[in-house]
Amino acid sequence: AAKSFSIAAQETSPRGLAINPAGTKLFVLGTSGDDVNEYALSIAFDVSSASFTQAFSIASQDTNPWGITFNPTGTKMFTTSAQTATPRGIEFNADGSKMFLVDNAAASIDEYTLSSGFNVSTASYSQTFSVSANVTEPLGLAFSTDGAEMFVTMVNTTYEITRYSLST
């Protein structure tokens, strides 16, 4: 059976979600509070064991956040904002040398190369992968730990996750 918990007391317009590698912390990014809400999971990866810990406001940096991710050590947090056309989800490869942004309007995944890992000021555009044949209104993405598979969430008449096998 599916497990759930309500975050309505902290956020009524959730957009992005991240979880730490141990599965003991859950982060929800939202536009009604323009903040990141942190929850402790007393049972790893079990959302029904969540309890609210604290909120971190990003209102001075972004008033329309959509995607959230962290570097592997949890020392850097990244969010997407309305400063570009329609960014939604954001992910990095393991060493932070590649950044991937979901472009909602174009139905594509944009790849950037970072000359210094997790330093977005060193990002340069690399390529775009269109998901329009399978996905309308892409919102988020995730990769398997070995990087061989990419998962894209979308909204259309149904909420779906589409899996892509990656050759490199």
Could you give the order of strands across the largest sheet?
1-2-3-4
Largest sheet, strands/sense/barrel: 4 strands, antiparallel
DSSP, total strands: 13
Q: What does the average pLDDT come to? A: 91
**How would you spell out the order of helices and strands?**
EEEEEEEEEEEEE
CA gyration radius, whole angstroms: 16 Å
**Share in β-strands:** over 45%
Low-confidence spans: none
Count of separate DSSP helical elements: 0
Overall SS class: mainly beta
The helical percent reads under 10%
State the distance separating the first and last CA atoms.
35 Å
Q: What global shape is seen?
A: globular
Provide structural commentary.
By secondary structure, the protein is mainly beta. It has strands at 14-19, 25-30, 35-41, 50-57, 68-70, 77-79, 87-92, 98-103, 108-114, 123-130, 138-143, 149-155, 159-165. It has a four-stranded antiparallel β-sheet, with no helix packed on it. Strands 7-8-9-10 form a four-stranded antiparallel β-sheet, with no helix packed on it. A three-stranded antiparallel β-sheet has the order 11-12-13, with no helix packed on it. Strand 8 (98-103) and strand 9 (108-114) form a beta hairpin. The model has no long low-confidence stretch (mean pLDDT 91).
